Amino acid sequence: MTTDSPHKYRSDGLRRNVPESIITNALSQSRAVEAAGLSSVLTLGHLASRTGVSHRYLRSVVARDMDPYLSFQIRKKSGARARVISAPGPSLMHVQRWILRDILNEVQPHPNSYAYFQGRSVLDCARKHLGAKWILKLDFHNFFESVTEVQVFKVFKGLGYQPLPAFELSRVCTRYAGFVNHLDLEKYTADGGKYRVIHAYRKPYLGFLPQGSPTSGALANLVSRRLDERLSSIAMDAGLVYTRYADDLALSAGEHFSRAAARSVIGQISREITKSGFVVHGQKTRIIPPGGRKLILGLLVDGDEVRLSREFRTRVENHIRGVEKFGLQKHCSHRGFSSLFGLVNHVSGLISHAESVSRDWAQRMRERWDSALVASGWDFPSC
């Protein structure tokens, strides 16, 4: 809330010679979002006060005067361009975590979206497809980077925040495209003339959702909610089950289906994705017919229970064995990771992914992994 008591907020404002009309308007704005269980943000200064972070620092972030992110790369198995991870600095990380906890976590994504929301998991997503005979898979290309600050602004404004705070929140949660060198800047060109209120906020390029930011997953889900609704409708009309886990889409069917029907559905899905501003990663589109191996998010769904695949187990064990035998630095170089941090997070994430499916095996791997990290001089927790 703006304060524990509206009466106290009003009296404090009057004592500071704030006009009563401004105080009344602020309380009215707060009620609009607080009625939905969200924390109010009236101004950038208000956000600074609520998070304990310098207003000057936040103003520099919003004005794009600084780039408060550290970039590192994770090589993809396919050999394509490495995934760029943007880790926010400590102060911005703190503010983004507050936004996630006090605002975004209070807003439910679409029921068929399973990533980045407490109480939903990879395991829940995979279970929806148990017993399927046909599986269709599609993947977004550059999922997070496809979401711009304009779409994020619309999310915050749609939640009830006034235009200026919604704009500033969108800037706090996005990274300026002009600060990075791996993007096609033409896709992020901004019409600076449309924003005339604060001259310092005018920039030639838009911001994008940085993969590695606490708020990016939740915001991507909310931006994608209308798309999820349309894709769920297409699936229902075709008698399919639809799920999305971040950038991984899966649809499944029973016996009464065909390859021709699968191609038709994929065409409809792809067109809707394109309309929403995302790009389908064509090389990752798959049709898995009866008799094919049924994998969802690396989990086998061909039986009565979800199971880890042999390839997944081998992948984790090979990483652990490599660090045990050669040390963290040599294994990192050998496997093509650009940083130790990236490798540690990657393997730790794989183990965390396994814990809800095969807890005993995952715990054994976690113990070996942590011991291998300690032996290599890694002096903070792997998770």
Strand content: 5-15%
Question: Element order, helices and strands?
Answer: HHHHEEHHEHHEEHHEEHEEEEHHHH
Task: Describe the main β-sheet briefly.
Answer: 4 strands, antiparallel
Fraction of residues in H or I helices: 40-55%
Number of strands: 11
Spatial sequence of strands, sheet with the most strands: 6-7-3-8
User: Low-confidence stretches at least 5 residues in length (pLDDT < 50)?
Assistant: none
So how many helices? 15
Supply Rg: 23 Å
Quaternary structure state of the chains depicted: single chain
Question: What is the typical, i.e. mean, pLDDT?
Answer: 90
Helical/strand content category: alpha+beta
Shape: globular
Explain this structure.
The protein has 383 residues and is α+β, with helices and mostly antiparallel strands. The protein contains 15 helices and eleven strands. Helix 10 packs antiparallel against helix 11 and helix 12 crosses helix 13. The mean pLDDT is 90.
